[in-house]
Amino acid sequence: MFANRGKRCGLRWHHGPLARPQGGGPYGGAIVIEATEPEQRRRTGMPSALWPWLRVLAAVAVLGVVAWRLDLGAVGAALGAVGAGPAAAATAAALAIGAATTLLSARRWVLVARALNLPLRTGPAVAAYYRALFLNAVLPTGVLGDVHRAVDHGRRSGALGPGVRAVVLERTAGQAVLIAAGALLLAALPTWWGLLDPEAAAVAVLAAAAGTAALLAWARRGTALPRVRRAVRDVAADARATLFARRLGPRVAALSAAVLAGHVVLFLVAARTAGSVAPAVDLVPAAVVALLAMAVPANAAGWGPREAATAAAFGTAGLGAELGLATAVVYGLLALAASLPGAVLLVLSRRAAAQPPRGDSADSGGSAPKDEHRLSSTAAPLRAVASDGRPTTPDAV
User: Fold this and answer.
1) How many Å apart are CA 233 and CA 69, to the nearest integer?
2) 309 lies in which domain range?
3) Is residue 247 part of a domain?
4) How far is residue 103's CA from residue 101's CA, in Å, rounded to a whole number?
């Protein structure tokens, strides 16, 4: 059910027949959308739960090819040579860098959300961002943390759609700066064009064309096309008010560039920890390539294309593909370590949700159930069920 309830919005699927709009509420009436599960399967053409696992399988396939083509013995030797001292120093650096990049990312989210008239303070934004980073790092799909962050903030602010679009736009800003950095890299260093395999590029273009055709075919079925058009129109309008705004756009771009710089620094720490002695100027292009590969949707919490791209980048630069793979592994572990404060915040929020709200009693008659539901939506994102109105997969957003 997609309904406005005072200042809260929710998404709930029922197994009954299609429902009708219902009146009432301060926003001009609640829009109720109910559909049976078979009806949803007919609309999408494929169970939504299948898509995340296809990404995981693709990541496993990429890692299998990397393991088949490289000398894993050399990779293991490089990782085994890392001592306890360097590992501890790298972990401390990862936590510090992660704190800085998380603060900058959360500030970017705050700016975008406020431009869409959504209330969001920096402190809660940092906590939510940390929780999302940890969930992204430990869950196979790599995006469930952002999904929960978007939906939870949208429901708390009373506008689910703008809340989701705020997260999409602030993450898009970061990806746009990363892609721009990659384009500048290829323009400044022609030798790195060797990373672009013509056959792989042709396969990627064909896959993108097939995916676009499948998306258009899906959109033309039933009532999907009007909803897709409406979503595109809303995203475009919000992008003009945020990313392309005269004053806000440069600030968001600057924050995204600072976040990218932090990730590059973390990559340099990983390379040094793995045993690389190459100058930083030779490692920065490899870092950008690795970060670009992490944006490929065929990954599992970042693993997969990152390892393949880093090994190829190190091989192109003459640094050794095996050392590149070891660097990618160390980077993944350091990124996980940087997200660990999110695990602490997640545990604390779950404990807070388990405690009864202060000032409420069993017979208070109204506010306690709502407050309990409000807390549980943040503290237990992985316990979502159909009746709670919280998505359990990224496709539900």
Assistant:
1) 46
2) 51-356+364-379
3) yes
4) 5
